[in-house]
Write a structure and sequence with these properties.
single chain, 130 residues, alpha+beta, Killer Toxin P4, Chain A, two-stranded antiparallel sheet, 3 helices, 7 strands
Length: 130
């Protein structure tokens, strides 16, 4: 009986837990991190920033700014509402925190999912790839 109760508690805990996944890319974060964070700050907090406001169910918002320090390089940032049934407004601080994490945690860009949101940064060497 103890085993069954333990299994039941583990199942309930796993259902209620916030699921988080993350991965780093093997190609490059060759851009200036301070510049990338400035883009994120404006996109998440600025008046009319790309990642502010309401997200429809399943909607992905993206931006691909051009680096003034790295030749033809760009970084593509994406934020996706993974909920297919409801729209939400992502908090500005959550947006910044998660995208900063992609910049700081992965030398070459990365992707993570947390609480129904996907955050992605991808280094793109050729300008036309965005």
């Amino acid at each position: 009986m103890k085993l069954s109760a333990s299994v039941a508690i583990a199942i309930i805990a796993s259902i209620n837990a916030q699921v988080a996944t993350a991965r780093c890319f093997v190609w490059g974060w060759g851009l200036d991190k301070a510049e990338a964070k400035a883009w994120v700050d404006f996109a998440c907090r600025g008046n009319g920033g790309m990642f502010t406001g309401q997200y429809s169910p399943g909607q992905t918002k993206s931006m691909c700014p051009h680096s003034k320090y790295s030749g033809n390089a760009n970084v593509k940032f994406e934020v996706e509402n993974q909920n297919k049934n409801a729209g939400f407004d992502l908090g500005d601080d959550d947006c910044v925190k998660r995208l900063y994490s992609e910049i700081d945690s992965c030398s070459w860009g990365g992707e993570s999912s947390y609480s129904g949101w996907r955050f992605r940064s991808v280094f793109i060497l050729l300008r036309g790839q965005c």
